[in-house]
C-alpha cells in the first residue's frame, strides 16, 4: 500500500504525540483534542508540528468519536453512551454528564443546541444540549439504517449509511419531528460525511456495490468489487432537489475487518480522507466534478502480522500539517503545505419546540404505562407483586404491580442503570462504566447500596444471577465475566473470556437450567454454556467457533434446550451442546422474518426488535412448527421483557414500561 504516482506526492510523517491507541482527533479553538483507550487528551498546537500535551481525562469507556462546541466536548462511547466534558480549561477537562443513548453510540455531531448521536441500526438520536450539563432526548431518525457517522450543517443532518452504501439528508428544523428528505447511493460502505459550501463529501470503504456478500464473508470465485469500496464521493445538495453526484474518486482496494472506519474533513480546496491502511489521502476538490488526489501519507507498520501500516481512523487539518489518529499508537503529524484549520461554522440555532408533557402513569383498558424520566431498559419481578426497574439516567425504580400500580422508591445510581436482577433481599444493578452495584432491599423502603464491582474499562450492560445468588454472570463490554458475590464489598472475577465478535444487546439467557447450565451467544458464534453449579463456575462447552452468522440472542426453553435466533429464524440445540449453526432450522410460516432478542416463557417465545420497534409472541410448544400468536409495533424501543403471572412487563426505552395482561402467558 505504498504511495504511488497516481496517489500524488508522498506526504511525510514529521512528528508524533501520545503513546496509546487513538480513534478520533479534532482541533477546537486552537487546542488539539484526541480520544482513545477511554481517555480524552488535550494538546497545545502553538507549534503546529510539535503538539504539547496539556491535560487528560480518563474513564470515558469505549470512545469512538468526538465533536466540540463552545466550552464542551461531546464524545460517543459505543456501549457507554455519550459523555459531555467541560473543556474550558484544557489542562483539566472535567466530566459534566454521562448520557444514556439508545444503543452503541458511534457517530456524533454537534451544532448547539442540538447534538446528534448515531446508534447503528437504532437510529440517529437528536438531543437537546442547550444545557450541556443536562442533555434531554428529543427524537430519533433513520432507524433501521446502519448509521456510523453524522454531520449537522444549518438545519439539516447528513449521515453515512454503512452496509446500505448510502448517504442520507434529514430536515431537523423541528428536531422533535425530523424528516428524511434526500438519499443517494454510494459505491462503498458509507461512514464519514462532511457538508461544506453546498457540497456533501462522503468517505467510503470495504466493498463496492458489485460485491453482494456480507463484508466479512470471504470472496468466492467471482470477487468483483471485493475491497473496492474505498474512495471519496461528492454530491451537490439543494434543499428542494435531489442529491446530484459530482464525482467518485477511488482509492487502492483492500479489506481488513478492523477498525473499519473512514472519515473525511475539508480544508479550503482540500478534502482530507482517513482511510485505514491506505493512510491519509489528500484530494484537491476545487473542481468537484474532477477531483485530483494530490498526496498520501502511509503510517509506519503497526502491530499486525504479517506487517501492515498502522491504520488511520481519523484526520484533521492544522496549520500546514495534518493530525492523524493512529489506531494503535497516538496522533501522527503529517506535513501538508496549503492546509489550514477549518473555521467554526456559524449555523443559525435551531429552535426546539416545547415538549409534549406525558403523565407519569396512564391506563388504557387493562394496559398500564409508566413513563418516568430516563430510558427504561429492564424490569425484574420479585416478592410476588413488586418489580425493580432499570431506568438509565433515571436510576433504579421499585414499583408495586398489584393490587394497584404504585411507585415505591426512585433511587439515583452512580452510573447509567441498564439492567437489574434480584436474589433474596439483594438487588444488583448494571451501571455501564460504573460497574455492578449491590443494594440491600428493606421492605418498601428505598434500597441501600452495600457494595460495588467496578474497574477501569468496565462497561457492565447485563447481569444474570445463579439460582442461589452466589454468582453473577455479566456482559462487561465484549467480555463475559462471572463474579463471586459472597462478599459484596469484595466482588471478584472468577472467570472472564471473550467470544467471536461482540455483544449486541443482552445476549445472556436470563436464567439457567435446573442443573445449572446457562447459555450465552456472542454475535458471531453459536451457544456457549456455563456451569453455575460448580465452584467456581466454568465453561461447559468446547472452544467457541465463529459461525459467520450474526446471532440475535438466545432463549432457554423449559426442557433446557437453547433457542438461538439468527437469519430471520431459529435453531434449537440440546442442553449443553455447542452447535455450529450455519442456517436456521425453523422459519415462521410464509417465511415471515423473525428477528430481535428472544425470551422464552413456557411455550411462548417473545422477541423484541428495538430498531424496528417490533414485538412478537410465538407459540413454540412444537419448536419445529411455530405459530405466531401476536405481533405489534412498540411505541418506543423495546428491550427484553419479563413476565409476572399473566402480565407482560415490556420495557420500551423512552416510552417507559408497559404492563399488560396476555392470556397466552397465564400460568407461565
Structure, briefly:
The chain has 668 residues and is mainly β. The chain is 0% helix and 45% strand. The mean pLDDT is 94.
Overview of the molecule:
By secondary structure, the protein is mostly beta strands. It has a domain at 33-267: Methylamine Dehydrogenase, Chain H. The protein is built from no helices and 56 strands. The model has no long low-confidence stretch (mean pLDDT 94).
Stretches where pLDDT falls below 50 for ≥5 residues?
none
Tally of helical segments = 0
Cα-based radius of gyration, to the nearest Å: 25 Å
The CATH homologous superfamily of the domain at 33-267: YVTN repeat-like/Quinoprotein amine dehydrogenase
Strand content: over 45%
**SS-based class:** mainly beta
* Range of helix content: under 10%
Q: State the total count of DSSP E strands.
A: 56
CATH fold node name of the domain at 33-267: Methylamine Dehydrogenase, Chain H
Distance between the termini: 60 Å
Q: What does the largest sheet look like?
A: 5 strands, mixed
The coarse silhouette is globular
- CATH architecture of the domain at 33-267, by name, is 7 Propeller
Q: What is the averaged pLDDT score?
A: 94
Counting copies of identical and different chains, the oligomeric state is single chain
With strands numbered from the N-terminus, the spatial order across the biggest sheet is 1-26-25-24-23
Q: Regarding CATH, which class of the domain at 33-267? A: Mainly Beta
Amino acid at each position: 500500500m505504498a504511495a504511488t504516482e497516481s496517489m500524488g506526492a508522498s506526504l511525510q510523517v514529521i512528528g508524533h504525540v501520545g503513546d496509546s491507541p487513538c480513534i478520533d482527533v479534532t482541533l477546537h479553538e486552537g487546542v488539539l483534542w484526541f480520544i482513545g483507550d477511554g481517555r480524552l487528551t488535550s494538546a497545545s498546537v502553538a507549534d503546529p508540528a510539535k503538539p504539547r500535551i496539556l491535560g487528560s481525562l480518563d474513564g470515558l469507556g469505549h470512545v469512538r468519536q468526538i465533536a466540540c462546541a463552545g466550552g464542551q466536548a461531546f464524545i460517543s462511547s459505543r456501549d457507554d453512551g455519550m459523555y459531555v466534558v467541560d473543556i474550558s480549561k484544557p489542562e483539566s477537562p472535567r466530566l459534566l454528564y454521562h448520557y444514556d443513548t439508545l444503543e452503541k453510540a458511534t457517530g456524533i455531531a454537534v451544532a448547539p443546541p442540538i447534538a446528534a448521536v448515531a446508534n447503528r441500526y437504532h437510529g440517529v438520536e437528536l438531543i437537546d444540549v442547550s444545557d450541556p450539563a443536562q442533555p434531554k432526548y428529543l427524537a430519533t431518525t433513520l432507524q433501521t439504517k446502519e448509521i456510523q457517522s453524522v454531520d449537522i450543517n444549518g438545519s439539516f443532518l447528513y449521515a453515512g449509511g454503512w452496509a446500505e452504501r448510502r448517504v442520507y439528508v434529514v430536515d431537523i428544523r423541528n428536531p422533535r419531528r425530523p424528516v428524511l428528505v434526500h438519499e443517494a447511493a454510494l459505491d462503498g460502505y458509507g461512514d464519514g460525511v462532511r457538508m461544506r459550501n453546498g457540497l456533501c463529501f462522503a468517505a467510503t470503504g470495504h466493498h463496492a456495490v458489485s460485491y453482494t456478500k456480507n463484508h466479512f464473508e470471504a470472496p468466492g470465485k467471482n470477487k468483483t468489487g471485493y475491497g473496492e469500496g474505498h474512495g471519496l464521493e461528492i454530491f451537490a445538495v439543494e434543499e428542494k432537489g435531489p442529491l446530484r453526484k459530482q464525482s467518485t474518486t477511488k482509492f487502492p482496494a483492500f479489506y481488513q475487518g478492523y477498525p473499519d472506519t473512514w472519515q473525511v474533513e475539508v480544508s479550503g480546496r482540500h478534502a482530507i480522507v482517513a482511510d485505514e491502511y491506505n493512510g491519509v489521502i489528500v484530494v484537491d476538490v476545487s473542481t468537484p466534478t474532477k477531483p485530483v488526489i494530490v498526496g498520501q501519507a502511509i503510517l509506519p507498520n503497526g502491530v499486525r502480522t504479517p506487517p501492515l501500516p498502522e491504520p488511520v481512523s481519523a484526520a484533521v487539518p492544522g496549520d500546514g500539517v495534518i493530525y492523524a489518529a493512529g489506531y494503535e499508537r497516538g496522533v501522527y503529524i503529517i506535513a501538508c503545505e496549503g492546509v489550514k484549520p477549518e473555521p467554526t461554522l456559524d449555523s443559525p440555532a435551531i429552535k426546539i419546540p416545547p415538549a409534549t408533557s406525558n403523565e407519569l402513569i396512564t391506563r388504557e383498558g387493562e394496559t398500564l404505562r409508566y413513563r418516568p424520566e430516563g430510558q427504561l431498559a429492564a424490569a425484574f419481578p420479585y416478592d410476588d407483586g413488586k418489580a425493580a426497574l432499570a431506568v438509565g439516567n433515571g436510576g433504579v425504580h421499585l414499583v408495586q404491580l398489584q393490587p394497584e400500580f404504585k411507585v415505591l422508591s426512585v433511587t439515583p445510581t452512580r452510573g447509567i442503570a441498564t439492567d437489574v436482577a434480584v436474589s433474596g433481599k439483594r438487588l444488583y444493578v448494571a451501571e455501564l462504566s460504573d460497574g455492578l452495584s449491590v443494594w440491600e432491599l428493606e421492605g418498601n423502603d428505598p434500597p441501600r447500596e452495600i457494595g460495588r464491582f467496578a474497574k477501569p474499562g468496565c462497561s457492565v450492560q447485563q447481569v444474570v444471577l445463579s439460582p442461589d445468588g452466589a454468582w453473577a454472570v455479566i456482559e462487561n463490554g465484549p467480555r463475559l465475566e462471572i463474579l463471586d458475590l459472597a462478599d459484596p464489598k469484595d466482588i471478584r472475577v472468577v472467570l472472564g473470556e471473550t467470544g467471536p465478535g461482540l455483544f449486541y444487546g443482552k445476549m445472556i439467557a436470563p436464567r439457567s437450567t435446573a442443573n445449572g447450565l446457562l447459555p450465552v451467544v456472542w454475535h458471531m458464534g453459536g451457544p456457549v454454556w456455563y456451569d453455575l453449579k460448580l465452584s467456581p463456575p466454568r465453561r461447559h462447552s468446547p472452544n467457541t467457533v465463529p459461525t459467520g452468522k450474526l446471532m440475535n440472542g438466545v432463549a432457554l426453553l423449559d426442557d433446557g434446550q437453547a433457542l438461538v435466533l439468527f437469519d430471520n429464524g431459529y435453531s434449537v440445540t440440546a442442553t449443553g451442546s455447542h452447535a455450529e449453526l450455519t442456517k436456521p432450522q425453523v422459519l415462521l410460516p410464509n417465511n415471515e422474518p423473525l428477528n430481535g432478542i428472544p425470551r422464552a416463557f413456557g411455550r411462548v417465545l417473545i422477541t423484541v426488535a428495538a430498531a424496528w420497534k417490533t414485538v412478537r409472541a410465538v407459540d413454540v410448544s412444537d419448536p419445529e412448527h411455530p405459530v405466531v400468536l401476536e405481533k405489534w409495533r412498540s411505541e418506543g424501543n423495546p428491550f427484553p421483557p419479563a413476565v409476572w403471572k399473566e402480565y407482560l412487563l415490556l420495557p420500551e426505552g423512552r416510552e417507559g414500561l408497559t404492563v399488560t395482561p396476555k392470556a397466552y402467558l397465564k400460568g407461565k
